Amino acid sequence: MAAFTFFYNPMSRAQIARWALHEVGADYDPVLVRWDDKPAAFVAANPMQKLPTIIHHLDGKDQVVTEAAAICHYLALTHRDAGLLPTGQEQGDYFRWLLFAAGPVEQAVTSKAMGWNPTDRQEMTVGFGSFDRTIDALDGWFADHDYVCGSRFTMSDVYVGSAVDWGLQFGTMPERTALKAYAERCRARPAYQEGKRIDTAEMQTLQGEG
Predict the structure, then answer these.
(1) Which of 23, 77, 86, 99 would bridge with 90, disulfide CB 3.0–4.6 Å?
(2) Domains annotated on the chain, with CATH
(3) What is the pLDDT of residue 59?
(4) Please, are residues 163 and 128 in contact by the beta-carbon 8 Å criterion?
(5) Distance between CA 37 and CA 206 in Å, rounded?
């Protein structure tokens, strides 16, 4: 048995976890989750039935990890030799932007895609304030930094980079110069390219079946 079981569908946020798995060189067994036929082991592991989900088979005890941001950081923790954890001086930036992407960015992009734009009064209540301020904050950071932690790629960039990559690809983020440059740096990672090749091939297979 591999160290990790990876429940995925290539047409989902599981692409983020696959990239992370390849960044650390994790030993994993992939288990395809079809939307109309979900494996019982997956449903048991994650009652939300959301992807990605991983199970770490660790010292005789299975550790389930869900939520793409959590999976990314967990893999960095369990594969310290990969060098993707933040140093002491990088921790503030690392966690700030990792959780910013998982919270305000995710909320802002999803809300706009669903056609909901909060009023000025509602902006005081919602976690992201406004779409424009959220994107401006992200864009402003990468105007002055190559990666989340400055000049060095860390696991936080897998999650933040995926958010920017998808946002630009699907038009849910504006094509700002700094964001486009950041996305290109992330796309140049060998692990990103390895994961993308696998997911693209699987998507083509699934589409052929349909």
Answers:
(1) 86
(2) 4-82 (3.40.30.10), 88-189 (1.20.1050.10)
(3) 86
(4) no
(5) 14
